[in-house]
Amino acid sequence: MRPTLLEGDVVLVNRLAYDLKLPLTDVVLLRFSEPQRGDVVTLNSPADGTRLIKRVVGLPGDRIQVTDGVLRINDAPVSRQRIDDYVEQEWDDVAGAQVEIRRYRYTETLPNGVTHEILGMPTTLPQ
Fold it and tell me: How do strand 19-21 and strand 51-55 relate by DSSP bridges?
């Protein structure tokens, strides 16, 4: 979710946005609406129960692909515009030092008009 959300950010969620569940379970008592493209949702990982936060890009029946870093929905590439690069510091275990990582930053526009920022693949900056 970078750069929209960063590690350590506090996120408040509306647990009643889509449905009402029996407390402490996943049993749905009443459904209010369905997630839409561009919504940011939280869910539990089916693998280990870890809480995840994700952006919805596909809806039931959609075919989703990422080809060469470009999101495609139903075989159509999602529009994106390159904006300034995003530079961050990361620890490099091999070098035993901080290194700057440059990520390509884009504004992506989903088919329903919702826009958000995304980061492309990192490249290590020369020292």
Answer: unpaired
